[in-house]
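Worked example 2:
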Amino acid sequence: GPTGPQGIEGATGPTGPQGVAGATGPTGPQGLAGATGPTGPQGLAGATGPTGPQGIEGATGPTGPAPTFSIGTVTTGAPGSQASVTITPTT
């Protein structure tokens, strides 16, 4: 006789295993900058400045005492010769 009809489909089999992981994504952006570091130490001292101008002249000192003396002897010679005077200091 003739061939019979197609039979019904069997049940679905079990789920297969997990596939392999995908490729790693691209690198993320650069992070934010860190905080500013502390202030550095004090710099070296500068060079010494130039010498200042000369100061003004001081005041004049007091006048000294008048000299005291006496004339002891006066010797005169002939005209054209040298005369001499002896001065004796007094205290």
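The first strand starts at residue 69 and ends at 75. The CA atoms of residues 85 and 91 lie 19 Å apart.
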